[in-house]
């Protein structure tokens, strides 16, 4: 769309909400690493002292929502609706929904450049879950019928997407303690996210505020508290702006997405579903990682799964619960299996089969090592000319989280024999 188009009165009537982008720019940031604070804070709504922010906000007028972001300061952040909607759109006229986002220009440019974006939501052929109360975990998602490994269970656009790292630039006026810095950061974080919340439509505002909040007494405001409790990390908007080290230590380039239904998924250390964000449909898609029976709870993991039970419980502290899943109830045996499978070098078929048995016993089909090991085992069977067993593992691989689409080729005898490792006839 040409820039000039937007200045006509007819075009103004068609402008999307993005034409009133709020852009905040400031002098170079001081990067602040803040440790998680889990104590109790009184009066969290009062602005803490000892710092000032450099932010000066301005409203960008007549910006085409679909225009390239290249001319914007890379440190400006944008309040934007994605996919872009018309001023008169509602959830009734646009039932796939949209996310209210705080994005940096590189992430928005990457989204707009994704082939197919914004494609319609891909929905499963029938609904297979319900959101219902549990005796001890609040709400949760439960299957309403048998679900097979690899099945799509639900796909949903986020309510909100915002940076998972501190974006407010601050200058400290005196030496602050870690806790004082933390309080300053969460206070400013809430202020930055308020305009994003204000842009939500009434239904999504209510849905957002109805979500659980395990950060009510640690200084987090109501928006930040809900994001910290309910968000799923998105690493797929990486444009190369941040280094791997910055991503890992400061979570730079990582975003947090909050959902109406997906955020009701409770935690297990042996999760039976996994999520994948598809930029083209702008939705999180939830798949089964193993067969799930009727009335089973659908769970994801909020922690790293190769760490031991004690470390996982420490990670879960900020969510305000102690995990009582089977792995945490019998930590000695479970920790041992996880340690062995994470450190086991797979040099031969026997190692691969042993690793798979450990991962399956621990219910770790959602992790990358599981599909990597399936592929390893499939290839070893192909290498010794055992088509029947190779096909068994290729079929498991196809249903798997990280499987390359390639695996489908090896689910038939002809496919297996076309593999480069298949023994050549002499
Ligand atoms: C993302 S929400 C999950 C949905 C939540 N149960 C609800 O009612 O909206 C995270 C919160 O759910 C609860 N939760 C999640 N997994 C749990 C578990 N395994 N055991 C106990 N509580 C859990 C904790 O209160 C946690 O802070």
Kindly provide the radius of gyration, computed on alpha-carbon positions and rounded to a whole number of angstroms: 24 Å
The number of distinct β-strands equals 16
Shape by Cα distribution: globular
> Spans with pLDDT under 50 lasting ≥5 residues?
1-16, 22-29, 58-63
Coarse structural class = alpha+beta
Count up the helices.
13
Task: Please give the largest β-sheet.
Answer: 7 strands, mixed
Helix content: 25-40%
- Average pLDDT works out at 86
Organism: Mycena belliarum
Pfam families: SET
InterPro entries: SET_dom, SET_dom_sf, SET_domain_protein
Protein name: SET domain-containing protein
Q: What is the fold's blueprint, element by element?
A:
Blueprint: H1 9-14, E1 22-25, E2 51-53, E3 56-59, E4 77-82, E5 99-103, H2 105-113, E6 129-133, E7 139-143, E8 152-156, E9 160-163, E10 170-172, H3 178-198, H4 202-209, H5 222-230, E11 232-234, H6 244-250, E12 255-258, E13 266-267, E14 273-278, E15 283-288, E16 297-300, H7 309-316, H8 326-329, H9 331-343, H10 349-361, H11 368-383, H12 387-398, H13 413-417
Parallel strand pairs: 5-9, 13-16
Antiparallel strand pairs: 1-3, 1-4, 2-10, 4-5, 6-7, 7-16, 8-15, 9-12, 11-12, 14-15
S-adenosylmethionine binds near residues 138, 212, 266 and 321.
């Amino acid at each position: 769309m040409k820039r000039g188009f937007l200045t006509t009165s007819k075009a103004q009537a068609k402008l999307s909400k993005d034409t009133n982008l709020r852009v905040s720019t400031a002098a170079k940031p001081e990067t602040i690493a803040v440790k998680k604070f889990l104590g109790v804070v009184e009066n969290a709504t009062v602005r803490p002292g000892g710092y000032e922010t450099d932010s000066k906000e301005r409203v960008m007028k007549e910006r085409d929502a679909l225009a390239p972001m290249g001319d914007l300061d890379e440190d400006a952040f944008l309040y934007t609706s994605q996919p872009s909607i018309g001023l008169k759109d509602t959830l009734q006229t646009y039932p796939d929904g949209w996310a209210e986002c705080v994005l940096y220009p590189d992430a928005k440019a990457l989204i707009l450049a994704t082939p197919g974006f914004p494609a319609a939501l891909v929905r499963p052929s029938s609904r297979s879950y319900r959101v219902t109360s549990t005796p001890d975990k609040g709400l949760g998602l439960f299957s309403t019928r048998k679900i097979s490994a690899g099945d799509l269970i639900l796909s949903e656009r986020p309510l909100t997407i915002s940076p998972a790292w501190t974006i407010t630039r601050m200058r400290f006026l005196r030496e602050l303690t870690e806790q004082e810095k933390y309080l300053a950061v969460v206070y400013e974080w809430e202020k930055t996210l308020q305009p994003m919340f204000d842009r939500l439509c009434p239904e999504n505002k209510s849905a957002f505020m109805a979500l659980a909040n395990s950060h009510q007494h640690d200084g987090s405001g109501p928006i930040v508290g809900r994001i910290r409790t309910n968000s799923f990390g998105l690493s797929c908007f990486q444009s190369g702006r941040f280094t791997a080290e910055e991503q890992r230590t400061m979570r730079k380039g990582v975003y947090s997405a909050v959902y109406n239904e997906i955020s009701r998924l409770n935690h297990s250390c042996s999760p039976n579903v996994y999520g994948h964000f598809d930029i083209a449909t702008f939705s999180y898609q939830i798949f089964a990682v193993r067969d799930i029976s009727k009335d089973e709870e659908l769970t994801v993991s909020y922690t790293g799964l190769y760490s031991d039970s004690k470390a996982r419980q420490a990670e879960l502290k900020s969510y305000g619960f102690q995990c009582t899943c089977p792995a945490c109830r019998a930590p000695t045996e479970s920790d041992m299996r996880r340690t062995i499978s994470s450190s086991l070098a797979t040099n031969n078929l026997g190692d691969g089969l042993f690793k798979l048995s450990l991962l399956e016993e621990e219910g770790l089909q959602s992790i990358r090592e599981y599909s990597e090991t399936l592929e390893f085992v499939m290839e070893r069977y192909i290498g010794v000319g055992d088509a029947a067993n190779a096909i068994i593992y290729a079929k498991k691989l196809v249903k798997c989280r990280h499987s390359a689409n390639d695996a489908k080729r090896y689910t038939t005898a002809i496919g297996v024999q076309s593999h480069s490792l298949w023994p050549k006839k002499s």
